[in-house]
Queue: 2 jobs
Job 1
Amino acid sequence: MKYSAPRGTHDILPDETPLWQEIEKKCHKVFCLYNYKEIRTPIFEATELFTRSIGSTTDIVKKEMYTFPDRKGRSLTLRPEETAPVVRACLENNLISADNLTKLYYIGPMFRYERPQAGRQRQFHQAGVEAFGSSDPALDAEVIQLGVKLFEALGLKELEVDINSVGCKKCQPVYREAIKKYFKENIKHMCEDCKQRFEQNPLRILDCKELPCRKYIEKAPASVDSLCGECKNHFEQVVGWLGSLGVRYRINDRLIRGLDYYTKTAFEIVSKQLGAQNAVCGGGRYDNLVEELEGKSIPAVGFAVGLERVVEIMNNEKLIMKNECKISLYIATIGEDAKKIGFDLITKARENGISAEMDYMGKSLKAQMKAADRMKADCVYIIGDDEIKKKAGILKDMRTAEQREVPFDELISQNSCGSDCSCGCE
Ligand code: HAM
């Protein structure tokens, strides 16, 4: 039997991992600049956490969750997103309150049973932030600015911030009614999914990507026209702050997010470089979620970035990262005695932060030199019988081809290969 990765999943191969590491490093750095602390939550949670938070009529809950009973019959789900798990962890560990700002971030895999296509996988990775405790519109703007700054740090261009307000408990029913009234006439011409959405969750219709439906959606009422005074004021302030922060945005009054927990601000950062799945980042405010998950009333705002989509853009734009894990020192040995000495020396090198490698394949000296070349080693240190007698090996600088004799006990203390660990792992 030939095994392959499950449909919609992919291996991240050694050629690609330097780019992933660099992206993750940038995320840690930029999130830290904005005072976010990392949180790691389990990959699976009680199913109810997601059905209650994301919404039972959303596509994610209806069709996309990997849900299974454990051996005791408890229903568990591989996390399709991480906002709800973070809220759960905060409540369980008392991390948040209504009078303190708590800022958390995460990086990790998510799981959605979607139809795989470019930009859409069944296992994908997100880096996200969640800020709890403040309803200040300036914080919404800061969160959006953080997304933009992260992409700038990664060298991504041609991105656009789309922003909308989806209102609150007070104004959402007003908008829902306006939408129902508008679509009532035309729903018979729209797709089967939209017909279902019309009955269960009419706002979801705005998210439909089917071309025949789009022409009706484009003329639908905008949520900003149904906002209550408070939401309207909040929205005006968010865009005001974005303006004074110099963040360029576009008001997209058709923007509806695929999760039900949003209130007021909803936004996406989209790339012109991607096809149909063009959102690299999605987020917004969710002021009721903590309370809906049995906590106090604590407002919150956040976003998540789809890392596969970031990688795709970086590959398209040939934004190559220099963080390749290179070997500084390769020790080539001839014979068992030389191998023992070589083994001691690579151990010492690694203890001193110098990346080092030797041969475990019984290769000839010529083949070992070739292997060192393939690894792009800075230096090769050669030990054969003669060198053992002299207690000194031959150090070849692979960049200049210069050779010189270096005693065994001076190789590491001299840092003879002239570089420390070049893989940037500090
Ligand atoms: P989301 O819009 O569902 O939001 O996902 C955020 C990002 O994850 C998307 O913009 C996209 O880049 C990426 N993404 C989503 N699904 C897939 C997929 N199947 N394959 C590849 N990439 C994908 C959330 O998940 C919210 N939890 C974001 C949030 C945080 N809101 C507030 N805080």
Note: The chain has a mean pLDDT of 93.
Job 2
Amino acid sequence: MGQGVRQAVITGGGSGIGLAIARRLSADGATVLLLGRSEDRLRAAQQAVPDARIAACDVADEDSVKRVLSGFGSIDILVNNAGIVETALFLRIDDDAWRRMVDVNLMGAVHCIRAVLPAMTARGRGRIINIASTAALKGYAYASAYAATKHALLGLTRSLALELARTEITVNAVCPGYTETAIVEAAVARIAEKTGRGPEEARAALEAANPQGRLIKPEEVAQAVAWLVSPEARAITGQAIAVAGGEVM
Ligand code: NAP
């Protein structure tokens, strides 16, 4: 990557993993722009990352993505982190739920990459990081739609990495296991409700999926991103980096 202050866009940067990435990249000297649907959430995130710029934007809406990103100048780092999860037995996931997850988890990344790639290609350098999941690398019962979108995001990552391999643009996926964020809090509540277990027991079930017997911290995911965007990581492209305590190998 080149010299000077780098500009980074982080979708879903107002909470959880995205916010941890924003804090880390900002601490490392990047100018960060946080995107998300809720302006209130983004404003709250600005307390944690005072130099951050924010813009309300639904990544499923390509026009909105184009409008927001065209006003931010040249973008060196794109972190496609916005994501949603809805869990149910396969036969209970209707088309609307499938579309919601495809539109955000896959097409959200497509829209953002389309918006930044022409200028990145013209400059000949850049970093694209897609926050996928261990659900991009293995299946999970009750999560067929979510896992399908994350597998698709990984397929996009690998193929685009090859298309761009002769440039200084790398494209990688980071695949967290269960990580301490609102998504996991919701999963704990859902498991407790469906199984009649207490929240502690439900949380223990998620921790048990990780061979290290714990949930991942958002900062650990941010650390992997910080490495992937560093100049030293230029040989790393098309990879799926699991940050999951050994859950997949
Ligand atoms: P989170 O706190 O719920 O973060 C998701 C973020 O995405 C929110 O800030 C949300 O903000 C934003 N978002 C959702 N839909 C959006 C849209 N259409 N347009 C723009 N922003 C949108 O949960 P998280 O755990 O940090 O999740 C971040 C990413 O990590 C997701 O892609 C998730 O699939 C992935 N992941 C999480 C885990 C885990 O265990 N936590 C594990 C593996 C992978 P708004 O609602 O304001 O838009």
Note: The mean pLDDT is 96.
